[in-house]
Amino acid sequence: MLPSGAVIGILGGGQLGRMLAMAAARLGYLTHVYEPGSAPPAGQVAARLTTAPYEDLAALAAFARGVDVVTYEFENIPASALDAIEAICPLHPNRRALEISQDRLTEKAFLTDLGLRTAPFAAVTDAGDLARALDRIGVPAILKTRRLGYDGKGQARLASAGDAEAALAAMAGAPALLEGFVAFSREISVIAARTAAGQVVAFDPGENVHREGILRRTTVPARLSEAERAEAVRLAGRILEALDYVGVMGVELFVTARGLVVNEIAPRVHNSGHWTQNGCAVDQFEQHIRAIAGWPLGDGRRHADVMMENLIGDEIGRAAAIAAEPGAALHLYGKTEARPGRKMGHVNRVRPLGGG
Amino acid sequence: MLPSGAVIGILGGGQLGRMLAMAAARLGYLTHVYEPGSAPPAGQVAARLTTAPYEDLAALAAFARGVDVVTYEFENIPASALDAIEAICPLHPNRRALEISQDRLTEKAFLTDLGLRTAPFAAVTDAGDLARALDRIGVPAILKTRRLGYDGKGQARLASAGDAEAALAAMAGAPALLEGFVAFSREISVIAARTAAGQVVAFDPGENVHREGILRRTTVPARLSEAERAEAVRLAGRILEALDYVGVMGVELFVTARGLVVNEIAPRVHNSGHWTQNGCAVDQFEQHIRAIAGWPLGDGRRHADVMMENLIGDEIGRAAAIAAEPGAALHLYGKTEARPGRKMGHVNRVRPLGGG
Questions:
Q1: Cβ–Cβ below 8 Å for B352 and A282
Q2: Among candidates B5, B47, B334 on the partner chain, residue whose Cβ is nearest the Cβ of A25
Q3: Residue A327: its chain B contacts at CB < 8 A?
């Protein structure tokens, strides 16, 4: 277990890094945030901030020498940056989890190899691939770049085969995959954690509502049968174990008549786990810090029902009104400019367990 | 209402300042901590830290010029320091609340003038005063310096009149007051907040257990009748209103057969309010920031039962074992040296509302 006063390095200075830094502080740790952009939200609450690009290997090495463990708030970190860090300091979660989640095709192949169900998919590099994939998968479908992409970027929907040319053009030559749609009744996610010793703990699945590719709301409890709930948790555990994972992972799932289908995995704390801040004794951020610092995990039990709502762009203007609502817990990210689509904060609306 | 990105100045860099800084961050504010000691716990999570004594009026003025409002985590701040700040920047809670709580005699006089009950008391400056006070109040009694004093320091117990000389010597010439003991069944406290507009909100009273003058545990709900609960909250509201108070105050009370007796007031967030971090949507730290930054107050309702226990000195060694308990929420203060009597952290043990 890392001793009190140890330093946790965090790659990425956004709101996830910010909430990780506050959770680390609650366990007595100092944090050092590494972020290319200026004035990052996480820098406001970290003991130390390095402002440098991920291509600056000397800055990364200096960062790694000053911390006891490194983690990250997002998965699209260049391999060279990770090499520079791992030469000096432990990195959690591990490279395999990152590599799998950095590539949608690799991720889907990993999941199906585990025997889990995903949307139908096919690799697409040219018009011929796309035509064959459309033949097999049908429409509607969605063409996505294999790498990068976040909150709906780098994606093109195909309502008919006639959309193929435009969709392929939108990929700008990047390797892609075509995904079929899944007929689902609802979207849920499981936030689960694993320690190096193999302890696995999952929070109660949350039910998600997305709009324009961005998460808007997560509600716990999700409307699930006991069998679905157990299956969701079991499935997340299988993924963590297969990756020898250390830390918190977000697993997004579709609920279908034929069972659960994995949408995607994120090797980090996840927006759909923000409800845990006000519904559990140990939230997803602290759970992640516990895992990477060698603590026992919290038990994940809920002591309250919660509805989490993101405050996006100028919705932040509603913060004062929300603050006056009974049971509303605000979490703002310290961003001063409210650009459209930008996550500015969230609110957890809390009710006693099973209450009215 | 202070806009997002505004800077909140905090005098004092201990654990209360630290938890205030994290609450300010949740509302989108930056914090600047002013603390004479090196490497203060609050500095680890603040956007900025000034290390300078309270006698350095130039440093205080520079601090005040860089912030939008100033608050404090402890009440024994020199008047000259407050003058330097108030010449530049608003200070909350106000000077009157500070002056009253800095002097035990003034505080008792203020409370009795409000018609509230306190322990019997008398001013003591010399042996003649003390003899007359002992005649009137009797023994056992406790002699306390009027000013300073924290967690049992600057106090001497008198089991009989024969202890008078030693007790007076322990005051080292400082003006003092003699307090009689109050026969009480339990100690409780009310954490209440008031805004500049006069909105007052109290959290549910907590039941406290002290040992050697240091708070060990606070439990909510406290074992109180509905009438006692209502009276405790009403009484706290009267104190806040009489002081035109802005911020959070801790009011310690004795429960006696003849009603509630005020033990002392603290014009700040209070150790006995730490349970709110895991029992309410808005905790005492955020409630304080809301009040001084012009937000509406949170409603103060509990959504869970909580038992808060301080981790003092080497009790911090139990942190890992506590972390493995179901429902245990740890809050460590980032102090590396565990001296005897030093508050190193606390744990909130959370259970669903009214649960078993």
A1: no
A2: B334
A3: 281, 299, 301, 303
What are residue A118's phi and psi, to 5 degrees?
-130, 175
User: Which H or E run includes A145?
Assistant: strand A141-145
Q: Within an 8 Å CB–CB cutoff, is residue B21 touching chain A?
A: yes
Does B307 lie at the interface with A, CB-CB under 8 angstroms? no
ipTM computed for the complex? 0.93
Q: What is the pLDDT along chain A (356 residues), one digit of tens a residue?
A: 999 999 999 999 999 999 999 999 999 999 999 999 999 999 999 999 999 999 999 999 999 999 999 999 999 899 999 999 999 999 999 999 999 999 999 999 999 999 999 999 999 999 999 999 999 999 999 999 998 754 556 889 999 999 999 999 999 889 999 999 999 999 999 999 999 999 999 999 999 999 988 999 999 999 999 999 999 999 999 999 999 999 999 999 999 999 999 999 999 999 999 999 999 999 999 999 999 999 999 989 999 999 999 999 999 999 999 999 999 999 999 998 999 999 999 999 999 987 64
Strand order in the sheet with B176-180: B121-124, B176-180, B141-145, B155-158
Asked whether A30 and A110 are in contact (CB, 8 A), the reply is: no
Put simply, whether the predicted model's pTM sits higher than 0.80 gets the answer yes
- Show Cβ contacts of residue A227 under 8 Å, excluding neighbours closer than 6 positions: none
